[in-house]
Specification:
Elements: H1 7-26, H2 41-51, H3 66-73, H4 76-104, H5 110-137, H6 142-162, H7 169-178, H8 183-196, H9 200-220
Subcellular location: Membrane
Membrane topology: Multi-pass membrane protein
Transmembrane segments: 6-27, 115-136, 143-162, 174-192
């Protein structure tokens, strides 16, 4: 490995571990154990969550409800999201694995390739955070952002395909950076799944299915 390029892995790894520990210690399991709520606020928060169908009734959280699994399998939305997670995993694997290879093909050194590959991740994080913040204030926009972000990422892929990097290297590199929008649809899909699926077994089955489709297809690439 070229000198000093390993620092980026040390930084990313340390940040990931630190964030995981922070979430483990600071994020409550439920409103009833939220440390930042008072004793009077906790029951109100629990009722509010239950009223918006974010969790299931207590009687529904014990045991496996096979009826809910069959209900999920008969739901067209399940197969739509399964298809999306499959396609997203394939695209994600290609983007993340071949992004440095594409940039190095522009004639940059190994060290500069690592540096120039970073903005794509920054764009992914910024777009994800910004559009998620908008959905918290304006309802019914998650599907819209899902489609728009996918269109931007596809436009970036089209630029990389169509533009000759030997003549227009900066434009082709901009297309690579636009591919960073691929992360937004994934976040929106998970959010829709979490808020629109009711039933502990069904919610768990759909969540595990998403991870399975994503993991198998991403690993295969």
């Amino acid at each position: 490995m070229e000198s000093k390029t390993y620092y980026i892995f040390i930084i990313y790894g340390s940040a990931t571990i630190s964030m995981g520990l922070l979430i483990l210690l600071a994020l409550p399991d439920s409103p009833s154990t939220a440390w930042f709520l008072t004793a009077e606020e906790r029951p109100l928060a629990a009722r509010r969550v239950a009223a918006t169908n974010q969790t299931s009734a207590a009687s529904d959280t014990t045991g496996i409800r096979w009826r809910q699994i069959l209900e999920a399998l008969r739901d067209p939305k399940y197969w739509v999201t399964a298809t999306f997670f499959t396609a997203q995993a394939i695209a994600n694997a290609g983007i993340t694995q071949f992004n440095p290879l594409i940039i190095s093909g522009y004639g940059f050194s190994r060290a500069k390739t690592v540096l120039l590959a970073t903005p794509q991740a920054a764009i992914a994080m910024a777009a994800q955070a910004a559009l998620t913040a908008v959905t918290l204030r304006a309802p019914n926009l998650r599907c819209v952002f899902w489609v728009l972000a996918s269109a931007v990422a596809m436009a970036g892929a089209a630029v990389v395909k169509a533009v000759d990097p030997s003549a227009h290297r900066d434009a082709s590199l901009a297309g690579v950076y636009l591919l960073g929008f691929w992360n937004v649809p994934w976040v929106m899909a998970l959010s829709l799944q979490s808020s629109n699926v009711v039933g502990a077994t069904k919610k768990g089955f759909v969540s595990v299915s998403a991870a399975a489709f994503y993991g198998m297809c991403g690993f295969g690439v």
